[in-house]
Amino acid sequence: MSERPDLVVTASRLFCADTGLDGPGGIAITDGHITAAGPDVSGPATRTLDFPDAILLPGLVDLHAHPAPGEWRWGIDADTMMLRRGSTTVMSQGDAGAHTWQEYRERILEPAATRIMMALSPAVLGERHDRGLFIHLEELDIDACVDTIEADGGDIWGLAANLTDIACGDNDHREVMERILTIAERTGKPILYGTRKTPFDWPIAEQLELLRPGDVMTYCFIEPQESLDGDGQVVDAYWRARERGVLFDLGLGKGTSDMGSAVAAIDQDFPPDTVSSDVYKNHSGWDPPHDLPMTISRIIACGLPETDAFAKATLRPAQILGRAGEIGTLAPGASGDLSVLRWGEDPVILADAPDNDREGGALQPVVTVRAGEVYEP
Predict the structure, then answer these.
(1) Hey, is 24 helix, strand or coil?
(2) Are residues 127 and 121 in contact, defined by beta-carbon separation less than 8 angstroms?
(3) pLDDT per position as a tens digit, 146-205
(4) Which of 373, 281, 251 is nearest to 81 (CA)?
(5) What angle (nearest 5°) sits at the alpha carbon of residue 363, between those of residues 39 and 336?
(6) Domain limits of the chain?
(7) What pLDDT was estimated at residue 352?
(8) Three-state secondary-structure class, residue 214
(9) Which residues fall within 8 angstroms of residue 20, CB to CB, at 6 or more apart?
(10) Number of H helices and number of E strands within the chain?
(11) What's the DSSP call for residue 105?
(12) Is residue 21 helix, strand or coil?
């Protein structure tokens, strides 16, 4: 390094699935970007931070969360409940729609230190009100949604589709999905898809057949009757969808519930493609806090290897968001986004399995760095 960096962060372990780093070392950041990474980086710098008992990862990327105004249905403050807890990039699952997108940009996206992307709601109001998204079918305005996406400068990743009975009300969920697919086809955008969760009125196989390569099914293990058959085997529809290029996201907003299906799926070599938290308003005040580090801890407790879990919360979602090389990596030139975590010693319930509750230590945020700026929990 020819110039003194603005910041050097060292730790007993660096891990980066993109560059292959896995061992002691440091990260140098100048002007908000990584300038050096590896075992020989240690300073001097304008500011140095050393963590001899922690893991340093690329800034965590949460593919499914709810950064939004506090008075909206699910909204929480991204900088408080996400950035300071390890997540430097988060994607909103449909908090804004065509008629609320500009307000969302001005109130949430632009002022936030957190990098926020949007899976736009096909409903024009998004999740502003405490009611089902699609109970008024006229609010699923195809042209308004298409126009909003086409006018966007790159913050809208795709569409969010949540087709529960609460979301759809008395409307035909198949018609709702048909309209969403029309928007997706007209804009060339992927879908972050939340399933019907009532498999007897719409089989999961039929739902997954509608998804296309690059679409993401979230909540993939929350409903065991969707993911596992009567013999505890991963259903054929999941395997077929994965073969076609459909992706599977954890979306673990319920905390520990129904993780027995995750245990079974991982044991059968069907892990999630990405690990996300679905953190939203109802998680405020949880002890221990619900965040992406806790979600990573839970899926590790279910049998996912630690390094795989780290990759699925950094590199893989970065690739899905189309931001590989910029985020989810410790490579020089990338954004200076880091997450420093430490394993807590106090045991917590990490997963509910069919046979027992799995307890253990959980990853806890120590420091987060976003574009070279340091944030503490």
Answers:
(1) strand
(2) yes
(3) 999 999 999 999 999 999 888 999 999 999 999 999 999 999 999 999 988 776 789 999
(4) 281
(5) 45
(6) 7-58+333-375, 60-320
(7) 75
(8) coil
(9) none
(10) 12, 16
(11) I
(12) coil
CATH number for the region 7-58+333-375 comes to: 2.30.40.10
Q: How far apart are CA 176 and CA 189, in angstroms?
A: 17
CA 263 to chain centroid, in Å, comes to 20
Assigned token pair, 50: 């050393």
**How high is the pLDDT of residue 165?**
87
Instruction: Look at residue 257 in the predicted model and tell me its pLDDT.
Output: 56
The rounded Cα 66 to chain-centroid distance in angstroms is 10
Closest CA to 276 of 219, 315, 339, 332: 219
Q: What architecture is domain 60-320?
A: Alpha-Beta Barrel (3.20)
What is the number of other CB atoms lying within 10 angstroms of the CB of residue 343? 14
The predicted structure's pLDDT at residue 268: 98
216-218 and 191-194 strand pairing: parallel
- Which residue ranges of the chain lie beneath pLDDT 70? 1-2, 199, 255-258
Identify the pLDDT of residue 239. Answer: 98
Q: Tell me the HSE value of 268 on the side-chain side, using a 13 A CA sphere.
A: 18
Spatial separation of the C-alpha atoms in residues 18 and 237, rounded to whole Å: 30
What six digits make up the tokens of 295?
A: 């979600």
